[in-house]
Specification:
CATH architecture of the largest domain: 3-Layer(aba) Sandwich
Strand content: 15-25%
Number of strands: 23
Helix content: 25-40%
Distance between the termini: 39 Å
Structural class: alpha/beta
Number of domains: 3
Radius of gyration: 24 Å
Length: about 575
């Protein structure tokens, strides 16, 4: 059926009167919006759903949330027969998140499943912790992370506190797709809901502090922090205070939770503009360090004093590098490294983590993009090897395994410890980063995201990836491409010898090109946003801070030339 024909089916039961009226208005007055709202089913992917809120099969609404939850309920009953099934639910500050969370809870309880539901918005990492702490069978977070205000989402977690991976992801998708809207059980049973609040926050904060405390002594670090109108304001100020950091200044204009995110173009700490108010406030307060978190508080942006004393924003790889070095150093000091430990990374994250891990005598294990794959590495290694920490370039870090997702709360606590130790030595975190580069090599990365919205945008992104596969470049900035990794076909091709090897990582629509000089270009469509992403990476040596500016300029110039090549 075409979009109009599908839309007309929403003019009849089981759809309620309000929905039918809204659909009729679209049919009468907005054919373009109607087509985008009904041209496909909003995909329930390997981690859940993310999309624009509104009426239609390609939107998040009562019925698409209900369909996803009914499918999940059906799967849980097949997996956990003859037991009391429990699911924890949290939600962010976005419009309708609280309403949708209660709707999701109702569908679960209508299916005989018991629910732990947070009364108010909470950070995503707290939900991961709660699933583990309460020994739930699954967890759900309603969030669209750092997407624009019109978006919302639905992420599913398994009983280890990690987002779903095979075989559960595809099996749940199959169940969701088999649910007709008329199958959804909306009439919940409130007696099966237990509400969570401050006592549960305390358990999370206690665990966060316990798992990130390495440093003793004074903690006079001067911190500026912004929640970007999001959920971290519920937890982070209390967590910092409990960890001993009392010199904290919260950006006043961005303190209040607000699903419109009124002070930023995008509530994404990856974007420099999002932290502009925090940087200005930090200069007024003469702060040592700046932190910003995205709306669901799993990502963090960091700014520190650079070599010239001015505040400089770190990218995700730089933040992860300096925190990882600090944690590994503490493990080594405490005699906890014996070769049976590892750190986690992803295929589009900086390669610096390989020599850094080797420097400390641990392994660096790599998975696909997304922290669920780092959590999968942890799950597979349990009882054999110990996970220390892990991260990926998209401003996410996991400083321990008590949370099985990226966690800005705990990451900020350990970053403060690292910055405090540097301050005690008369240094900054940027100085510490330079020291890491001097030890293991200089690595510099940039990311370019191209937004392609709607049906046409999805087709353009697919065409771009196909072009890279069918006509791959032979060189980049004068450097010969010597290897091509295609994660969709699970093959690594040595372009010098022609030898093909199998990539032992689940399939994904990612291409990575490697040159003979260590330059790397990765291409992948985003799994959560209408974007195609290009990851650029170059490497060099660095013997001292005196060389840094020249090395940085050279790296940026090389990446600029690669961008110009791609634009041709």
């Amino acid at each position: 059926m075409n979009s109009l024909e599908i839309a007309k089916t929403w003019l009849l039961p089981p759809f309620d009167e309000e929905t039918q009226k809204a659909v009729q208005n679209l049919i009468n007055s907005n054919p373009k919006e109607l087509d985008d709202a009904f041209y496909k089913n909003l995909e329930f992917g390997t981690g859940g759903m993310r999309g624009i809120m509104g009426i239609g099969t390609n939107r998040l609404n009562k019925y698409t949330y209900g369909q996803a939850t009914q499918g999940l309920a059906n799967y849980l009953h097949k997996q956990f027969q003859d037991k009391k099934i429990t699911v924890a639910i949290a939600f962010d500050v976005r419009h309708n998140s609280d309403t949708f969370a209660k709707l999701v809870a109702d569908v679960l309880t209508a299916n005989g499943i018991y629910v732990y539901l947070y009364k108010e918005f909470r950070p995503t990492p707290e939900l991961s912790f709660t699933v583990r702490n309460l020994k739930c069978d699954a967890g759900i977070v309603l969030t669209a992370s750092h997407n624009p205000p019109e978006y919302n989402g639905y992420k599913v977690y398994w009983n280890d506190g990690a987002q779903i991976v095979p075989p559960h992801d595809s099996a749940i998708i199959k169940e969701v797709r088999s649910v007709e809207f008329s199958d959804i059980k909306f009439n919940g049973d409130d007696s099966k809901i237990t509400y969570l609040g401050a006592e549960d926050d305390k358990k999370f904060i206690d665990a966060a502090v316990e798992n990130t405390s390495y440093l003793k002594g004074k903690k006079d670090l001067k911190i500026v922090y912004t929640s970007l109108h999001g959920t971290s304001i519920k937890i982070l100020p209390d967590a910092l205070a409990q960890a001993g950091f009392k010199n904290v200044f919260i950006v006043p204009e961005q303190k209040n939770p607000d699903g419109d995110f009124p002070t930023v173009k995008s509530p994404n700490p990856e974007e420099p503009e999002a932290l502009s108010l925090a940087l200005k406030y930090a200069e007024e307060q003469n702060a040592d360090i700046v932190f910003g978190t995205d709306p669901d508080a799993d990502r963090l942006g960091v700014a520190v004093r650079g070599l010239d004393g001015r505040l400089v924003l770190l990218n995700g790889n730089q933040t992860n590098t300096v925190i990882t070095d600090y944690i590994l150093g503490k493990w080594k000091e405490n005699g906890k490294i014996d070769g049976k430990q590892f750190i986690g990374s992803t295929i589009v994250t900086s390669d610096i983590f390989f020599p850094l891990a080797n420097h400390y005598g641990v392994k660096c294990k790599v998975g696909l993009t997304g922290f669920k794959w780092i959590a999968d590495l942890i799950r597979k290694a349990e009882g054999k090897e110990k996970f220390i920490c892990g991260g990926e370039e998209s401003f996410g870090f996991m400083p321990s395994d008590f949370v099985r997702d990226k966690d800005s709360i705990s990451s900020i606590l350990v970053a403060c410890e690292a910055a405090q130790e540097a301050k005690n030595e008369g240094k900054t975190l940027f100085d510490k980063l330079i020291e890491v580069y001097s030890k293991v090599g200089y690595y510099y990365e940039e990311l370019v995201s191209i937004v392609k919205k709607g049906k046409d945008g999805a087709e353009q992104i697919a065409k771009m990836m196909e072009e890279f596969r069918s006509n791959p470049p032979k060189e980049l900035v004068g450097e010969k491409i010597v290897k091509l990794d295609d994660y969709q076909s699970s093959t690594s091709l040595n372009l010098i010898t022609g030898q093909k090897t199998t990539i032992d990582i689940p399939k994904s629509n990612v291409l990575i090109f490697f040159t003979d000089k260590g330059t790397k270009l990765a291409c992948r469509p985003s799994g959560t946003e209408p974007k195609i992403k290009f990851y650029f990476s170059v490497q060099d040596t660095l013997s001292s801070s005196d060389e840094f500016e020249n090395k940085l300029s050279h790296a940026k110039n090389k990446i600029r030339k690669i961008k110009e090549f791609l634009e041709k």
